[in-house]
Design brief:
The protein is α/β, with parallel strands linked by helices and about 300 residues long. The protein has 10 helices and 12 strands. Helix 1 packs across helix 7 and helix 2 runs parallel beside helix 4. The relative contact order is 0.14.
Length: about 300
Amino acid sequence: MTILITGGAGFIGCYLVHRLVEADQAVVVYDINIDNIENKDERAVYIQGDISNLDQLKKVFEKYEFESVFHLASILPPKTEEDPYSAFKINIEGTMNVLNTACNHGVKTIIYPSSATVFGPDRKPPFTEEDLRDPWTVYSSFKICNEIIGSIYSKKFDINFRAVRFPVVLGPGADPLSGMSSYPIEMMDDALHGVPYVAEVSPETRIPIIHIEEAVQVLINLWRSDQLHFVIYDIDGLWVTAKEIADGIKKHIPSAEITFKPVEDAMVQKVLTGIKEEKDKDRFGFKGKRMLDEILQEYISRKKPEK
């Protein structure tokens, strides 16, 4: 049997491909950006295609016998907010195409990365299944929609849809231009290149983070489990302030110039800083084992420009 990874050319996808082929799994990557992959894993099969093109997608499913699908393909912020119509075609129509085609070809399991942004700007850590979902962006509304669609398919058809709501995923290869909370990556990249960085957030802004390798391990664990049927797993991550990130970077790059100038947009500030008091942790919370210093040190050491 073969595993299909849609969006396998992306940040999380590239790490996932490597981990699966290392475990001797047959992997097919289906992505519109195949030509942009810097380090392809030659043990995987790469096919260029668009999940919003149903005919293209069907041909791939007809050629291979997929047992599982990791559905990672999506448009990320800020593009979702700038062009919601195009993002809808990929994030919603594309997901429907993947689910329908998977059902018609006997796929057993679909693993889907959702987002902790579905809880809205007034979220409070740790995230749990009991929390009210309150999307505040086009992107997060799409994520909730796909969770609901996945739930319906799990109930109506013989397919096992499993989703995980990720916090901010950090690690080498992350795109500093993607995501509403991109300032940690921008901080590190500018510090590495000796460029002063002005963070448009308050120093006390807190966000949850998880290391890329831990995020991939969560996806693999969800896929491997034979005791789950339709589950949405919440990843709380490690909560850190913008100042803690800046101080951690300066520890490894003393010359780094990082200042804070919060944006005046009230909604954006609410999104970035609207964290309520921390709740008692329960069985749904997940704390990554990697501490902030370890995450920063690995990112900086692997991306440090050569002299």
